[in-house]
Amino acid sequence: MQNLKTKKNTKELRKIKKKKKLLNPFSLEPLTAAYQNFRKKQRKETANKIKREKIEQQKQLLQEKNQKIIEENQKIKDEEKRLKDIEVKRQNEENQRIKEEKERLEAKEKLRLDNENQQKKNEEHARQIEAKRLKTEEQK
Questions:
Q1: What is the pLDDT of residue 8?
Q2: Burial letters for 27-55: b for 16+ Cβ neighbours within 10 Å, e otherwise?
Q3: 20 and 26 in contact (C-beta within 8 Å)?
Q4: Is pTM beyond 0.85 here?
Q5: Could you give the dihedral angle defined by the CA atoms of residues 47, 53, 55 and 57, in that order, rounded to the nearest 10 degrees?
Q6: Which regions in the chain score pLDDT beneath 70?
Q7: How many CA atoms lie within 13 A of 76 on its CB side?
């Protein structure tokens, strides 16, 4: 019987110890739970930080890409302007060459006309001289 009482007492002691454990202010369970929450929060913050950094990196890449596109467009505009300037210069040179050729032809034509007029004058002068010579011969 005493054995039975001892067993009963032991069972009661265990129950009391269990209750004390649950009521113990120095129990590790709340501390463990707090640590777990802290770690979870820390992991979440780290994940969010990584996400923000990734987003920032994508923004930076997008800005660089846009800047590159702007620079390429500017290069294209500059090249188009350069080609247009070359074309205008070529056209001006062609117009100048045509103008000079026209002036040369006009000068040549004027010289030809002047020469014809001079030749006519010379022929007329020669006829007058011949006419005078004939007249002087007749008079003799």
A1: 65
A2: eeeeeeeeeeeeeeeeeeeeeeeeeeeee
A3: no
A4: no
A5: -150
A6: 1-5, 7-9, 11, 13-27, 140
A7: 6
